[in-house]
Amino acid sequence: MFTFLIRVHTQSLPENTIDKYSECTYETLGFWLVKNDNDQYQLNITRNDIRPKAKIFFVTGKCNMTKVNVSKCESDLIEVYMYGDCNITCLNTERACTNAIYETCPYITTNDDFIEFQGQKPNCSKCGTPVQKVELEIKLPNTTISFGKDSNTDKAEVMKNLTSDVLAQMGNKTTASVSLGEVQGIFVKPKDKNNPETASFVYSSATNLSIIQDKTQMDTYPTLISVPKEAFEKAKSQNISTVFTAVFRIPSFTKDEMNSTVLNDEVYSIDMGAEIANLTNTINITFKSIDKKSATPRCFSWSGSGSKPNWTTEGCNTTGTGESVTCECEHLTFFAVLMIPNTDNTSIISSADLSNLTYITSIGCGLSVFFLCVALFMHFLMRRARKSEAAQILINLLVALVLLDLTFLTNEYVANTGNIIGCKLMAGFMHYCLLCTFTWFGLEALHLCLQLATISNPTTHYLLKVQIAGWAPPAIVVTVLFFMQKYNRLVIQTDTGKDVAMCWIIDSSVHYVVNIGYYSVIFAFTFTTFVVMLRWIVLLKRTTAGHKKAASGSGKRTGTGTSDILTIMGLCFTLGVTWGFAFFAYGALRLPSYYIFTILNSFQGFFLFIYYYKTSKFIGDSTISAETSNTTEATQMENPYEKQKNF
Predict the structure, then answer these.
(1) How far is CA 547 from CA 534, 559, 621, 629, in A?
(2) Cβ–Cβ < 8 Å for 318, 298
(3) pLDDT tens digits, residue range 107-136?
(4) H helices within 317-388, ranges in order?
(5) Tens of pLDDT along 560-573?
(6) Contacts of 510 (CB under 8 A, 6+ apart)
(7) Which residue in 49, 189, 372, 438 is deepest, having the highest Cβ count within 10 Å?
């Protein structure tokens, strides 16, 4: 019979402790050594008690342990060292049972790893289950607390009250499970408050929500949750009475305002009784076996304030490959994965492109607002310009565009405040400004057609009726959509999961019918008018040049090519022709059309300012009269478009 010298290399024992036994037990440390009927020794390890990464040394012969290098055995499963007559076998308990399988173990009720030595080779088998049995099971009536779809209670307050009740019942126990009908919860206190470890949890239909004890088996579960050591340390630093973490799985959770589809119809809540945020080592929740063909999973969180969730991506990053997705969140709250429908194969824009487009749009909108405001300032300084019907119609378009640019620049800020009512109002107002802009594009084209047909003041109160047509119908449409709950917070997806939120229409069918459909009609009319007007300008230019050549006896031109280009570009932006690039935002042309649309419309305010300046009577009348000796009648018309003849 062999005599073993066994030393456990852990921080809890002195460095030179040596215990000599023929059969020895260290149950308080999580292992014991027994002799079987074949004179072989079996090492039993209890996973619940053994320290992680503990190493066990079996010593035979005459050994001076002060000369043994215990820093070895870091990566190998088992190693043998010889020091003269001293034979030391080192066993890495963490790796010894990595690939072991679970077996039926009669009369064993604990979760143990059994290691049998055959020569120098350890053979490991597992008993019990990979999950830890809790010390206390608490069952509450289903009516105690409501998380369901019809609940109008504040969910953050619900969690606070529930946590207080469970901690009071736990007393000195370190683990507990809670059930409220379909709602399941797990409470864990670190064994060592001064040196907490990462808490890991799993969920499956077989085990429900449980503490994972055998972490080598984590990948076999469909849902994994880990709360890092850093979170426990932050909770401790806030001087709370009890350091703990509580994880809840809540099925059939209350729907949000947009009736979003939640993965597996389940929401997870993590609470530690303290405000935990800005974690470097994030809280990770992994979901597996996700069908991504028809929808894209995105991680969202909610503070719990209010009766209905207001999901946001702030503080949560979405990663994952294949059929899995991992939510990496830097704070505590309610968590869920929302399935965002894929409209096409290119529904997700890259974060780099989104950043570029946002940068271009912000600068472009800022410049447009500046030039449009300058044009408005000029208009209200000129008495003669205010009398022109065409100028006043143009000014209404400028006002609509200024409002649209301003709402667009402030939209994301309102969306990130989390105020649902404010976001709905912002979405409705921006939509109203957009529809008004489309309408004034059409009214500009209509007025131009009437001027080309030499119809002056065709109806009484012409300008008043035009203004009513430009501002009233969009208000009716927006009011109807607002009461139909079509406005809310919308998320723009990126490939990295760091999405951008805005307040807008949440029903894509409404967007296509009301916005795309309406603009299609406007575009058909304005583009036709633009082509006719362009041809008219070219012909008139030739005629005017011929008259002036005959009158002056020379071929000297009175205009420049640059002036013509500016006039045409101004007319193009006035009729909203550049917005037509939105029709190409599909398939392979989707991203290029975004850039072209964004860049062109960033210059809209500038060209409208130039167009207004060149077509208004702010330009000296003496200059006009000096150049129009043979075209007096044409240039004295009130319509500013007729002044194209002068360019």
Answers:
(1) 20, 14, 21, 10
(2) yes
(3) 667 777 777 665 556 777 788 888 888 999
(4) 351-381, 383-387
(5) 556 667 777 778 88
(6) 481, 486
(7) 372
Sequence-distant (6+) residues with CB within 8 A of 139 are 178, 179
C-alpha dist (Å) from residue 286 to 54, 202, 314, 439, 454 = 28, 9, 18, 49, 70
Closest CA to 48 of 135, 177, 178, 122: 135
Q: What residue type is assigned to position 392 of the chain?
A: Q
Cα–Cα distance for residue pair 438/469, rounded to 1 Å: 12
Q: Closest by alpha carbon to 57, among 104, 15, 109?
A: 15
- DSSP-derived 3-state class of residue 81: strand
Q: What span, in angstroms and rounded, lies between the C-alpha atoms of 244 and 233?
A: 11
Q: Tokens 């670190």 correspond to what residue?
A: 190
Eight-class DSSP state of 378: H
- CA-to-CA separations, 154 to 4, 149, 204, 310, in angstroms, rounded: 62, 13, 28, 12
Contact status, residue 284 vs residue 223, Cβ threshold 8 Å: no
Q: How many residues does the chain have?
A: 647
Q: pTM, whole model, 2 decimals?
A: 0.58
Q: What is the DSSP letter of 430?
A: H
